[in-house]
Amino acid sequence: MGLFNIFSPSEEEKRAAEVRTGAVAPTRAERQKCWAARDAYFACLDAHNIVDAIKDDKKAAAACGGEGAQFEKDCAAQWVTYFKKWRVQDIQKKARLKELEAQGANKMDVQTEFAPRR
């Protein structure tokens, strides 16, 4: 009986696999764990000047393999892809805003609100 338990995944591992596949929604604690893993992975990418971890996957794996593995382990697979794409877009957006400001563009504070229901 004990021998077979060595080879079967724990309840925690089963739950983590379900979260990764999207079979269950992550809890608040699981989301926070995911975000911490994402932040550690992105910090590593920043330290190695890697912007696009999808396009430069081999370079990212060589430089940040451990952080990337933890990120993929702690987050839903769809979230991993989403966050990697979001990172590229966010960096491009910030670079473009900096470029526009250098060209003398005026910064505008814009607030959007939904129209009130009638």
Q: Report how far apart the termini are.
A: 66 Å
Please state the overall shape, judged from the principal axes of the Cα atoms. flat
Helix tally equals 5
Task: List segments where confidence is low: pLDDT < 50 over at least 5 consecutive residues.
Answer: none
The number of E-state strands comes to 0
Query: Overall pLDDT, averaged?
Result: 89
Beta percentage is: under 5%
Rg to the nearest angstrom? 20 Å
Category from helices, strands and their pairing:
mainly alpha
Layout of helices and strands:
Elements: H1 2-7, H2 11-21, H3 28-47, H4 57-74, H5 77-102
Helix pairs in contact: 3-4
Any descriptors?
single chain; 118 residues; mainly alpha; 5 helices; CX6/COA6-like_sf; nucleus
Can you describe what's shown?
The structure is a single chain. The chain has helices at 2-7, 11-21, 28-47, 57-74, 77-102. By secondary structure, it is an all-alpha fold. The radius of gyration is 20 Å and the shape is flat. It is found in: Cytoplasm; Mitochondrion intermembrane space; Nucleus.
